[in-house]
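Predict the 3D structure for this chain.
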Amino acid sequence: MNLYKQYAREFTEAGYSVIPDKFASKQPAIKGWTNYCENKPTDQEIENWGNSFEQTNVAVCLGKASGIVAIDFDCTDPEVAEIMELLAPASRVEKVGTKGWTRFYRWHPGIKTDNLKINGNIIFEVLSEGKKTTIPPSKHPSGASYEWKGESLATVRPEDLGMFPMNIINAVNDMIVSKLPKYRSGRKEAYNKIVQGRNDLMSKYAAELIKTENEIGLIINSLIEYDLQNNQPPLFSDANEFGNDNAATNALAFFSSHLTSWNSKRFNNNQSYEHILIPKVGEEGKSKSEASENSNNPELPKPEGVLAAIMNYILKNSYIEQPSFAFSAALSLIATLSGRKFEFEGVAPNLYLLNVAPSGSGKNAPQEKIKEVLIDAKCDYLLGSGDYVSDASLMDGLPESPVRLDIIDEAGGMLKSVNRGGATYNAKMADILAELYTTSTSIFLGRQTAEGNKGRALRPNVNLLCSTTPTGLSEGVTVSAIEKGLMGRFLVFIGDGDKKARRVEQPTRLDTKTILNLQQLASYQPEKSDKVIAGHAQDITFLSKTDQANTMLQHAFEEFDKLRIDSEGNDVMLPIISRLYQQMLKVTMIHAISRQIFKETPEVDHNDVTFGYQTVQYFYYHMKDIIEQCVFSNKNEQNTQKLLNVISKSKQQGLTKQKLTSKTRYLKKKERNEILEDLLEARQIEYVQLKIDGDINYVYRRV
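Done. Predicted structure below.
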């Protein structure tokens, strides 16, 4: 039975690198098979292999070539199996054999082949570069056939699989050794004694350093030097302890984890040491005004904490400095990393952001830098495809990837597409995007198909970072889009089209400290809560607030509510105004997280509220201009097209002014005359003298 010959083409066309295995065996049938983890086999190789064997299994190579990795679990201990089911995300594609299962996920370069071994036995394996796995309908050595649980790899492309859980090995190890006494010899047992001694020594030394040093670089260098002199083997270069041998990175991680405890305990006469890792932006100790006064042209506020570091990094490495775009990109990053972890006043941190500037004005740099940052922080699994080709593509990956950042360049076409009327998938996408934004604290129900429900997800946190040109914006921002509520969910940032480019002689990478901050946020474990959604308990950290912040929030709420009441009857502006307070809460929360990234429970203070208020004030000022320029411009274009269609239907006979007025009563006299003048000037119509039924009349007709 030559299963490879039967199925190789099917899997290859789906995007996978497949090779033949020996029949009823897990052994490869060809030499040098590991090469096909890096590069797909050629058509000729596939044909030759198919014709060279009478009997074969079929196997898929993991890693770069196929774009997938796998978790292989075959431990028979039911207690361990229960832990794996809890911690290993479900996958659209799962292979089952005689004992366990293999689940498939999207690959990225940061995923390495590894395993968890406890008591000398392998609990499960991470299969990536240099590994393969036999796939259905291949025969197991026992004689049974492998089977798919759910969908087949042949029907799911690599990019449509869910994200790999990066911390799966440590997470499973920690839960096993903490929950199951018989497995006390966990991943780090061989190092427990020596590590404990090294940890105690370095903790005491770090506690002494912090009393005399404020400069993070000096602290880390001192820790590394002391470690080399006093520990054999050194703690910070021990890859078994930290997962890598980068002493600087590990020393910073060690110190930062201790800093959290020190701040909570307020060592040294109640002094806080947060300033060592989280420098303030602006004058030390100087607080911002509680609320900015209305301005004819409000400016964006200066962020604090990690937001400031990200924004400054983007600006430093951009050929054209666009502060508003660096600002929005930094917001999108922290919003994504905070997804499904925090809530504040009933809202989640998800954001839809749109940058607008002419082509060649520096829109791309912030987007690309955010991608680089996520890669450097080993968080690129949070990057979505940003390719909204259908409503199905938008929804189906949500159960496996409920948190993601979709970066969409030149989003004008997408906006125009999703805002079209009718029962098309484009129109559905506008509704889905609006619903995803709103259900970030509850449940997105997905869609019903013949195979069952698709896209159902608890508390989805989809973030959009989009860019477009003024033309793309004018085509996408329609009355329909605003009335549906989609555009009211976007925060829009306007760039400077006249900015001059500058040389960036030596692009830099984000500093280690900030990378650590981001990794700390990515791995943050929310608090236990009483919130239950669709029968599932949800762990959420609910941000608290100071009394001063609460007073400011009340004032902002009243201000925005008065604005809403005053706008009753304005169908265009009302959907925007109705969400201003919600947008403010989201940005306020993100800023609080940015300032206090190492705190277990960030607290919103007056600085955060000010930041949120000023951000929304900036957005509202510019959104009013956008609506005036785009929506009303679009409305005029629509009226122009309607009038032109009326004249076209009259063909060569044309329409008298009286008849044209009768057929376009939806237009005011002034609007009609202005449109006619424009059409005459553009020579799309003409005003000519014709003899009709024996009478001489002047008529409008198409040229």
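The chain has four domains: 3-183, 189-276, 306-542, 650-702.
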